[in-house]
Amino acid sequence: MLLYVGISPKAPPTNGRAPSRQTIRSRIRNHYRGNAEGSALRLTLGCLLADQLDLRLRRVGSGTRMTFGPDGERRLAEWMADHASVVWVVSASPWEIEHEAIRSLVLPLNLDQNRDSHFHGQLSALRAEQKTRARTLPID
């Protein structure tokens, strides 16, 4: 079993900007029904499962966004529905729980705050390779 930790909202900005209005509900919806451009988890899973699910990261729209295309995103959503589970904890400061979880647990799918993970370099390289390949392909 692999774990991934995500939070919502993120820590309040210290530069005077308004805090994030994102909710845990919208975050989970993005992970399950969104696309690789809007979900680091979907991007990571799609890159890891690319061969198994026949997924190819592609540039879409204006060419700056990248997704697995409608069919690929659908296959990834189906895989997640069959293999992924979500649990959540309510907290007034979820960024503190996230930091502690990443510090104390083995969370190879988390890249942010997790540079000491043995898998960080491999996963970062895989995602970068997929993005580089997508940039060489025509825009869908």
Would you write up a description of this structure?
This is GIY-YIG catalytic domain-containing protein. InterPro entries: GIY_YIG_cat. It comes from Paractinoplanes lichenicola. Pfam families: GIY_YIG_2. This protein is mostly helical. It has one domain (about 25-135). Helix content is about 45%, strand content about 5%. It contains six helices and two strands, in the order αααββααα. It has helices spanning about 25-35, 40-50, 50-55, 70-85, 95-105, 120-135; strands at about 60, 65. It has a two-stranded antiparallel sheet. Strand 1 and strand 2 form a beta hairpin. The longest helix is centred in the last third of the chain and has 17 residues, at about 120-135. The radius of gyration is 16 Å and the shape is globular.
List the helices and strands and how they pair.
Elements: H1 24-33, H2 40-48, H3 50-53, E1 58-60, E2 65-67, H4 69-83, H5 94-104, H6 120-136
Antiparallel strand pairs: 1-2
Helix pairs in contact: 2-6
